[in-house]
Every structure is written in C-alpha cells, then in structure tokens.
Design brief:
Radius of gyration of chain B: 17 Å
CATH superfamily of chain B: P-loop containing nucleotide triphosphate hydrolases
Largest sheet of chain B: 6 strands, mixed
Oligomer: heterodimer
Structural class of chain A: alpha+beta
Largest sheet of chain A: 9 strands, mixed
CATH topology of chain B: Rossmann fold
Strand content of chain B: 25-35%
Largest interface: A-B, 23 and 26 residues
Helix content of chain A: 55-70%
Number of strands of chain A: 17
Order of helices and strands of chain B: EEEHEEHEHHHEHEHEE
Number of domains of chain A: 3
Number of domains of chain B: 1
Number of helices of chain A: 27
CATH class of chain B: Alpha Beta
Number of helices of chain B: 7
C-alpha cells in the first residue's frame, strides 16, 4: 500500500522520473515507427514483386517460344491456372517530345489477356483527360484538320475571328475588316483558330458552327469524351495506331504532388499522352549479335501507367504485342523454302486460380511445358529455335524476384537485432534513472526499514515505480509512434519542403531562450547559461537551415523513391507489433528497475539513515 | 537492572565491532541494559561512546557481533525471531525517533505519521489515532503540509507521532532534541514526558546531562561499556 503512495509521490514531485517516462516513450515510439515502416516496406516490396507479372512466369531466351498460343491454351485448361498471357520483352531507347531520351524496358503485351493476369487496367493512370489539357488538345486537333477547317469558314466567321483579334478601342468597323479578309492566307486562319482554341475556347465555339465543331471533335475523340483516354489505354491504340503506354516516371514531365497525385509540368504542356514518341530497338540474332539496322518507330502515347513500383514506373513502356514482335523480329514470317516461322513470345505470365498458391501452380506448369515441347517441336522448321524445357526458366514471382526480396529480408533481420538494442537502451535508461533515484532516496529506504518495511516491500516500491514508468511511457510512446507513423508522409513532405514559418518560429524560440539565459545569467547563475547555450544553438542552426532551405527551395529528402522503389513511406501501423512493442517497453522498464530495487533492498538501514 | 520482574527489553553483554578499511573498531564491548515496562531510561555518553549503536541494536536495525550476548524482548531473544517477526517487532513493538527527524519529504504530515500503519497491516483506527496524536501534539492544522513547510520542532513532533502510531511498548529516541533550540527541545521532552506518563517505556540517547536527568534512570556509557547507572531522584 505504501508502495503505491510512494510511487505516486516520487513520480509527481520530481523531474527525473519524467525523464524516464520520456525515455521509455521515445524508445517505444522509435521501435513502433521503425517496425511499422520496415514491415510496411517489406509488405510493399513483396506486393511489388508481384506487380504486373502474375504468379508464375515462363521465361524463354531472346528468341522466344513459338506456338505460344497453344502453350497458353494448354495452361488455361489446367484448373489451377486462371489465365495466361504472352509478353515480348526487349530493350530500347525512347525519345520524348521535349527531346529527352531514355533507355526503356519494352514489353509487348496483349492488353486484354495481360489485364486478366496482372490487373493492368487498374494501373492505367489517366481515367480521363486532366482538366485544363483541352487548350493543348484543341490546337492539335485543329492542326490535324487545318486546311479543311480553314476552307469551311464563312466570311462572317472570318470577320468574327479578325474582329476578336482587334483591340477594344480599334477604329476599324466590321465592314472595314471584311475588306481585310481576302488578304489573310489560309495558314493564318489555322493559326488564328488554334490561338482561339488555346486561349478562348468559348469564343471559338461561338464563332464556329456545329458541323465545324464536330470536325474538331472527330479529329481528337478525347475532346469529344475525355474518358476515351481510358479506353485507348486498354486498347493500346490512338488515332487507330498502335500506341505506347509508358510508366508514370518515364517522362520527367510528371511531378508527384504531396497528396500522391500527379501534376504535369508547364501547366500540362508536357503531358505525354498528347505527343508521339520514338522508340528505337535493336534486333538480336540467334548468335546474340545485331541482326539488322536499329529500328525507329514513331508511336503516339495513349495513356500512362502507375504501378507504384518506382523501378517499373521509371523504365517500362508497354506497346502492343504485335508491334513488339515486329520490332524484335519475333513476328510470324513466311520462309523462303515454304512454310511459316511462327510468331514468338519471350515470356508467358500466368495467374493462379483463386485459392491456389504460386508454388502449387508452378508444379503444374513445368510438366505442361514439357509435353508442349514434345508435341510441338516437330512443327518448327528450325528446331534449334524452340527452347527445350531445360532452357526455359519457369519460376514463381517470388523466385523471380529473389534478388529483389532477399536483401530486404536480410534488412529485416538486421532490424530485429537493432530492436533488441533499442530495448536494452530503454532498460539501461530506466536502470540509470532508477539507480539515481535509489541513490537519492537512500535515507527514505533506511527510514522505511526502521519502521518495519520488509526487503520485499522495498523491492516492491522500485519495481512498481519501474512498472508505472513503463506503462505511462509505453502508452505515450504507443500514441506518439502511431501519430508519427500515421503522418510520416506529411512529416517527410514537410522536410522535403520545409515551411518558412517553422524556421522563423525556431529562431524566435532561440531568441526567447537566449533572452531568458541572459536575464538569469546576470543574477550570477551558471546553469541557465549552459542550458541556454545547449538549447539555443541547435534551435538557431535548425532555424537557419530551414529558413535557408525554404528560401532556396531545397529540402531534406530522406525517403528517396529511387532508392526505396516506392514513392511513399509506408505509414500503416501494425497494431499487434505496436502492442508487443508497448509490452516490451513495460517489461524492459521493470527489468531495468530490478537492479536498483535489489540494491535498495540490500541497503544497510543504519548506513541508509546516515546517508546525506 | 532495577527489578526482579522480567525486563521488557533486555540487552546483555553486547559487542559490536565495525570494520573501517583494514582496522576493526570495537564500538560496544559488553554493554548491558535492561528496560522495564513503562520505564524511561536515558543513555548518557560522549560522542563515539557507542550510544547510538546500542540504540540501533535495541531497535534491531543492526545485529550485535555473533556469539556474544544478545537482546531479548519480553524475554525472547530477538535473534530467534523469524525475519517476518523482526519486521513486525520494528513496526509494532518499538518506535524510533531520530535526531534529524527523518521524515519522507514527499509525504504530508498525516501520511508520514501513518507510514508505519501503511507498511504493515494497519491496526484498526490507525488514521484516527494518527490524527489524534498530531492534534495532541499541536499539529492538527498542518495535516496536509509537507515536512519542508514545518519548523524543526514541528518535524520532530511528526516523527514522534509516527513512532507512536502503532502503539509501541518502547520508544527509542536518538538525541531527539539534538537539533533543536533549548525551548523547542524542552517542548519535545515535555511531550515525551506526557507519553511516558501514559505508560510508554523510553530509551533516550543523549550527551546532555540535564536532559538525561528527566529520565527515571540514567545509564552512562564509556568506551562501549555501561559504567554507571543511577536512579534519578526527584
């Protein structure tokens, strides 16, 4: 009973135990934040390992697998396989409209079956043309039908267009303007219309008649219905041509905003889907050499995809399978001596049926390929180009990404070791603080012993003390950790672009501390000077750095998406882990209190009473 | 050693040696003291005579050297008590008053006085008894104050109230007025006198002859031995 009374009083009448509580809270919060971020990271990693590749992958050499349609049919007949899709993979260079050139991994896909296997449609970023992009699409559309549109303008419309260009106080009347019309060449009408389309859509719409407007909308059906962009993305086609779907980070024009959406630089000017891109690829022959001149191919962009795996979003572009086959020489070709060399795919991606694991599916696919090879090897003229089962890699997505996942598993191990150290730090802090409390309370222990307190009772005081510190610190740490983790992206963004007010606030706080220190210093005290210096210097440094960073637009980016593959810091708190951490904080606080408690119990009452 | 009846608290042939570094320092060399029920004994001695050590041994805060003499309470050797019984002995049978009061600074006056009842299973009416004691000692209006808000005399009264709250049979007082001015010390002695009259046995250690003379009997301690014992005549 006296234990709880004393614990309560010791806790509420001193600063030291508050330090212990703060130490425990910080330890617990630290562990929760680190565990949550690392677990979230691992989880993202694992999920990402599966992004856009399905469950099992049949991977052939650059020459690909012939008769892949048959292979896919055989696979899809197996109840463990939900669906399968062919892919042609190659590497190339993509040139973008603003003269940027970047190396890309090109995947030729069949959008429909690819979607069935990988949920590709969900990764298409643009559900509709983003707002404000009309002013670029309209002039482009006018450009496309320029001469026809200029031809169709009536005299009235031409006068309207010219009139619209006149300053308001212009002395020219409509009649006078009409005289100017014949002098305007056709290409100027196109330019004037484009200008209106860019800056005064409503004026343009008022001047043009319905039929002319219809012509424009037909020239770009994204104008007729902005949601058509999704359809084009799924069909991988634009203006009836095969189209490219690049990853969101292939183009430098896409800027990620704080809330995870994307903004296009130059007020939408560099929005990739309104341009064409040039893909350059090289055909590799069977001996691994270059078999032809590099192929240049100009294709429109139809949409962009965002898988949230930085590595993929940064370097992969999708094009239609047939186009890719064309580029890589894996297309169906008639042979000179008669017969046909079938089209090929370098990979077949397979999705497992609901309820089956990738490993179970893998066990089924291996024999399927073996029998496929046996059955079809004779259907190929050049048998050497048909990869035998031994030369085909059939893997689950996890096996395929082992290099990718392995290091993170190792990091997790390291993380656990670090955690134990953090707990030891927590216990050591409590130990040190409790030790000093026991030291300070030595006489109290003597007094208690002199009035009949048992040794066990004395131990009880300090264990209870440790327990209370652990519980309060643990709970505070739990919430602190939860808050930090929950807002970690906001905190990170704030660090990335530190607000000026924060720097000013820190500098102001430093001034207040210095003022206080100076006032107290004049009364001859040393502690305020030391405290003032210790507190104000970091405040000033931090404040100056933040003001500087804010003024110059620099920031501290800790979570670099290029390093960590993902754009966001994982921010979900695993409640079970957090709870275990909380309990761990309590247990280690009590453990830390054990040694000082034993010391207290062993204390000689006489010496304790004499303690000054 | 005044009566034929069994003494309440008896110390016989106590030896106590402290070790200071490599040197053994004998403090008590065969000291004996018997205290009867309701008797007030003053132990008089100069600094270093071993009087505080004697008191600590009587209060079982320390143990005499093994094999030589011992302490009996109600004729039962203390070293035969179990550990639990010895805690109970300190808690119930004796009360300690120290020169420097030794109050717990975080607790209020009332809580300090109640502490012995909190340490062990409390006797019924402990809170009332502590309240009454403090009231009687003139501290009724300061129950919620902290020790640092009290004067020395007031602190010592709280310490006495704490020593008495579990109705002990013997009060062991170690220079209870040593840290107080004469007048305040006088008030404290007055208070002890009152309790003595109510039947409390007191063993008081002092180096002041005039204070010692307030007791029923004065025992003088020299070089770790009881040299003279005198009955105070009034």
């Amino acid at each position: 009973m006296y234990q709880s009374l004393l614990t309560n009083r010791y806790l509420t009448s001193r600063v030291i135990p508050l330090l212990a509580v703060a130490a425990v809270a910080l330890c617990v919060a630290l562990v929760i934040v680190v565990v949550s971020v690392m677990s979230g990271f691992l989880e993202q990693f694992r999920t990402a390992g599966r992004t856009l590749i399905g469950d099992v992958i049949v991977h052939a050499s650059l020459h690909g697998v012939p008769h892949y349609d048959d292979l896919i049919e055989r696979i899809e007949r197996n109840p463990l396989a939900d669906s399968a899709t062919p892919v042609v993979e190659t590497w190339g260079v993509l040139r973008m409209p603003y003269d940027e050139t970047t190396a890309v991994q090109i995947w030729g896909i069949e959008p429909e079956s690819f979607d069935r296997v990988t949920d590709f449609a969900d990764t298409l970023y643009w559900d509709e043309v983003p707002e404000g992009l009309e002013r670029y699409l309209l002039p482009d559309a006018i450009e496309r039908i320029g001469p026809d549109l200029a031809e169709s303008l009536t005299l009235e419309q031409q006068i309207d267009i010219l009139f619209d260009r006149m300053p308001e106080d212009s002395p020219l009347t409509r009649e006078e303007l009409a005289l100017e019309v014949p002098a305007v060449p056709q290409k100027d009408w196109i330019t004037l219309l484009q200008r209106l389309g860019r800056f005064e859509v409503e004026t343009l719409q008022r001047i043009l008649d319905e039929r002319q407007w219809e012509m424009i909308l037909e020239a770009d059906d994204w104008l007729a219905d902005p949601t058509n962009i999704k359809r084009d993305g799924l069909a991988m086609s634009r203006f009836g041509r095969p189209a490219i779907i690049p990853g969101m980070h292939v183009s430098k024009g896409n800027m990620r905003t704080g809330n995870g959406t994307y903004e296009v630089q130059g007020n939408g000017r560099w929005w990739l889907p309104r341009f064409n891109g040039t893909l350059t690829t090289i055909r590799i022959d069977r001996d691994g050499g270059i078999s032809d001149e590099p192929q240049n191919l100009v294709l429109p962009f139809a949409n962009e995809f965002l898988s949230n795996v930085r590595m993929v979003d940064k370097q992969r572009v999708f094009i239609p399978l047939e186009t890719a086959q064309e580029q890589t020489g894996l297309f169906e070709a008639a042979l000179i001596d008669g017969g046909v060399d079938p089209a090929r795919a370098t990979q077949v991606l397979i999705r497992a049926s609901e309820g089956f694991t990738a490993d179970e599916l893998l066990a089924e696919i291996v024999p399927i390929y073996e029998s496929f090879y046996k059955d079809r090897i004779d259907d190929v003229t050049d048998r050497e180009t048909f990869p035998p089962p031994a030369f085909v890699t059939i893997q689950t997505w996890e096996e395929m990404q082992a290099d990718f996942i392995g290091p993170v598993e190792k990091e997790r191990m390291l993380m656990w070791i670090l955690f134990s150290i953090v707990y030891l730090v927590c216990a050591a802090l409590v130990l040190a603080i409790m030790w000093s409390i026991v030291q300070e309370k030595t006489r109290d222990i003597g007094i208690l012993r002199s009035i009949g307190a048992t040794r066990r009772g004395i131990v009880g005081i300090y264990l209870l003390y440790g327990l209370v510190i652990g519980v309060i610190g643990g709970i505070l740490g739990f919430f602190l950790g939860w808050l930090i983790t929950y807002y970690i992206d906001d905190i990170h963004d704030m660090l990335g672009a530190p607000p000026m007010w924060l720097g000013v606030l820190l500098l102001a706080a430093a001034m207040v501390v210095i003022g206080w220190a100076i006032v107290r210093m004049r009364s001859g005290e040393l502690l305020p000077t030391v405290l003032g210096t210790f507190i104000s210097i970091p405040l000033i440094l931090l404040g100056v750095v933040i003001v500087w960073a804010s003024a110059t637009g620099q920031g501290f980016v800790m979570w670099d998406a290029n390093t960590y593959y993902f754009p966001d810091v994982p921010n979900s708190v695993d409640l079970l882990v957090a709870f275990i951490t909380l309990i761990g904080g309590i247990v280690f606080s009590v453990l830390g209190a054990f040694i000082p408690a034993a010391k207290a119990a062993d204390m000689d009452p006489i010496k304790a009473l004499r303690y000054e | 050693m005044s009566s034929d009846t069994t003494p309440l608290l008896a110390a016989d042939d106590l030896h106590k040696t402290y070790r200071l570094g490599q040197v053994d320092v004998p403090v008590l060399k065969g000291a004996s003291l018997h205290v009867s029920e309701g008797e007030w004994v003053a132990v008089l001695g100069s600094s270093g005579s071993g009087k505080s050590t004697l008191l600590h041994l009587l209060g079982d805060l320390d143990t005499p050297d093994a094999g030589q003499g011992g302490i009996r309470f109600r004729n039962r050797p203390i070293d035969e008590h179990s550990r639990r019984e010895r805690n109970t002995y300190r808690n119930r049978s004796i009360g300690f008053v120290f020169q420097f009061y030794h109050l717990l600074p975080e607790l209020t006056v009332l809580e300090n006085a109640l502490l012995p009842t909190l340490v062990a299973t409390s006797l019924p009416g402990a809170r009332d008894r502590a309240g009454d004691l403090l009231e009687r000692f003139g501290l009724g209006h300061r129950l919620d104050h902290r020790p640092r808000e009290l004067s020395g005399g007031e602190r010592q009264r709280v310490a006495i109230a704490r020593a008495l709250v579990n109705k002990p049979e013997v009060l062991l007082a170690d220079e209870p007025t040593g840290n107080l001015d004469e007048q305040t010390g006088g008030e404290i002695l007055e208070l002890l006198q009152q309790e003595h009259r109510r039947g409390l046995a007191i063993v008081m250690v002092t180096h002041d002859r005039s204070i010692a003379d307030m007791a029923d009997r004065v025992v003088e301690l020299h070089h770790g031995q009881v040299e003279t014992t005198s009955v105070v005549s009034r």
